[in-house]
Amino acid sequence: MASQNNRDSRFELLRMLAMVLIITHHLLLYSPQAHSLMQSSVLINRYLEIYFSIPGKAGVALFVMLSGYYLAKFNWRFSKLTNLWKPVIVYSLVFTGLQFATHGLPVNWQNILAGFFPILTNKWWFITSFAGLLIVSQPLRQAFEQITRLQRLLWFSGINLCISILIYGQLIPANGELLKLVGIALMGWSIHDYTDVFLRYATRTLMLCGIILAGLVSWCIISPNFIKGTHLGWPFQPTPVVSMTSSVFAILLFIICIVGIKPFQNTFINKVGGMTLAVYLIHDSDFMREHMWKLLPTKLLYNSPWFVGYVIVLAFCIFVVCTLIELFRLQLTQFITTKWRRRHG
């Protein structure tokens, strides 16, 4: 993959936006009174409870589509898995130790092994599924790179249709997350295939995306009961309606970013964008879910018209704090590595 400084900073900004959307979803999902917004006197707050899962799923879709986009450009390398494993094992051991220390987790061999092997034990569902995606990405590339882009589009559409039927027809477990990520990554590959078309008809593309986006927002405004009513096990298990809405929203954002912003490189943006996965590891760990979200005074603002803005600002602040923690980890790792090499080199 391209070096950090040579990455397209548009996509790093998109990656950062994806993580803020995911944090926003988790903020509403894990807060103590997160699902009492329907009692709010403010209409937009009640809509927020109905649609709070969409930002998280759109954020995941954006993040994975970016990987699919790059899958079409770069060959698979084993270093991708090692780069994923390093922060995962560090934060797994840190948070497992904190859970042991605060008696949030019993000290036994099962939990100790889970701390050392977080990917295998599904400590973070997304990390486990994403690692699986990295493993299957090379076979996918070899299978589809030699055919035309139209053939790929037809194949990818068929694969996504089959995945949807399998999952939502309950023919396989509803938590078949790896299959979902594969389907989303293939969408990213298709976007890469047709980037030249989007750019050739840039004005029309932006107008069409704007019309679809406006229609999507309008539909969500006038159909909240339909969305909520078709959400099995609401608010935790999404149905095709919610997943499709999230995916379309993510695709539109991706295409608008490609067409509406010129490519550029910015070292700071690329550095922060490269730490987004660690932001996920930190804020969505079992330890943080148990403690951090309980400290958020969201209940005080449930009847405030500023609640939505408060949630967005708070999600951004959490992103910044987690980024600083990851920056500290990187600096500490570099310091220890340098000391070790000087002593034993």
Helix content: over 70%
Kindly state the number of beta strands. Answer: 0
Helix- and strand-based class? mainly alpha
Overall mean pLDDT score? 82
The best one-word shape is globular
The major pleated sheet works out as: none
Radius of gyration: 21 Å
Quickly count the helices.
16
Instruction: State the distance separating the first and last CA atoms.
Output: 29 Å
Taken in chain order, the helices and strands follow as HHHHHHHHHHHHHHHH
Low-confidence stretches: 226-237
Range of strand content = under 5%
Please specify the SSE layout and strand pairing.
Elements: H1 9-30, H2 43-51, H3 53-71, H4 79-101, H5 109-116, H6 125-144, H7 149-168, H8 177-193, H9 195-200, H10 202-222, H11 224-229, H12 240-260, H13 267-273, H14 276-283, H15 286-291, H16 307-344
Helix pairs in contact: 1-3, 1-13, 1-14, 1-16, 3-8, 3-12, 4-5, 4-6, 4-14, 6-8, 7-8, 8-12, 10-12, 14-16
Short characterization:
The protein is built from 16 helices and no strands. With 345 residues, the chain is mostly helical. The chain is globular, with a radius of gyration of 21 Å.
Q: What does this molecule look like?
A:
The structure is a single chain. This protein has 345 residues and is mostly helical. The chain is built from 16 helices and no strands. The radius of gyration is 21 Å and the shape is globular. It starts with 8 loop residues before the first helix and ends with a helix. About 3% of the residues have low confidence.
